[in-house]
Structures are given as C-alpha cells and as structure tokens.
Amino acid sequence: MDHSQISQIFFREIFTVPDQGTLRHLSSSAADIGTSASGIRDAMAPGQLVAVLESICAREVQSHLNEFEDVVVASSVQCLHRAPLPQGALVTVHGWVLALCAREATFWVLASDEQELVCEGTICFTMVRRSQIEMKMQRKREAIERRKLFTPARGVN
Fold first, then answer.
1. Residue 29 to residue 94: CA distance in whole angstroms
2. Distance in angstroms (rounded) separating the CA atoms of residues 93 and 145
3. Looking at CB atoms within 10 Å, which of 33, 52, 74, 157 has the fewest?
C-alpha cells in the first residue's frame, strides 16, 4: 500500500439519479411508502446515495492496492442527508482523503444537485488481506448451506 499516493486521492464525478435508485423502485410496493410520503417516492433513497459514495471511494483506494493481496472494506459511514434528490437530478460528488493511518483511510465526501448540498460526511475504509475476507465469506456460506439443510422448503408441509 502506497500511503503517499492514497493520501492524495481526490475525486469529482457527476451522475444522474436513475429510476432504479428511487424509493418507489426499491420499495416492494408503492403502498409501503404511504400516501403521506408520496412526494418523495421519486427521490433517491439515502442509502443508495451512500452506496454510490462508498463505491467511488473504495474504487479509488483499491487502485493503489495489490488486488491479489488486499481488499478495501468500509468500516464506518457517517453521512448527513440534507435534501432529497429527485429522479433525473444531476448530482456532483466530491471526495478526498481526510486521514490516513496504517491500514485505514477516511474520506470526506460531499454530494450536491444543481441547487444545493444534499449529503456530506465521512467514510472510513480498512485495508484487509484478501485471504482473510475470503475465509470469512466461505465460513458464512457454509453456515448458510447447513441452515438450509434443516429448513423445510416453503409450501411443503
């Protein structure tokens, strides 16, 4: 891991809010949101925006790591959602490394539409050994498979 290169990461990207990221699309049915919130059905879900910010930061850090040895994992997200983002909004996101220590990098991130700041906060990433994550994932997959052995199939009495 090259600390000097990671410490200089800065990004600026622009995207349009897609229908797939709106509350209407993510909800199993529009009725789940309720009629009192009908005006926000076409707004980007805050979690979707955070996922976009997280994926951009992770991509930037991962490009400075040995992909066969290390992987970057978000370990902390603290974002303040300030305003809605309607479908079709043009969103500009900025981010830069705020702090860097041994195997952690913290980003400051901002997202704005054409009118205002809509989200800001920090996302902390930990660089971990790929083999360590792969072992944990394998253990969890095996546990899921064992659980399925003892769970009756749906619709079977």
1. 33
2. 40
3. 157
End-to-end CA separation in angstroms for the chain: 55
Spatial CB neighbours of 10, under 8 Å, sequence gap ≥ 6: 94, 95, 96, 97
Please tell me the predicted confidence (pLDDT) of residue 32: 53
Name residues whose C-beta falls within 8 Å of residue 72's C-beta, 6 or more positions apart in sequence.
Answer: 58, 61, 62, 65, 105, 125, 126, 127, 128
Cβ atoms of residues 112 and 17 within 8 Å: no
Residue 94: Cβ within 10 Å count: 17
Phi, psi of 133 (to 5 degrees): -65, -40
Q: Which amino acid is at 72?
A: V
- Please name the residue that has the structure tokens 């479908």: 87
Note the pTM of the prediction, 2 decimals.
0.79
Rounded distance between C-alpha atoms, residue 16 and residue 78, angstroms: 23
From the list 40, 8, 12, the residue with the least C-alpha distance to 26 is 40
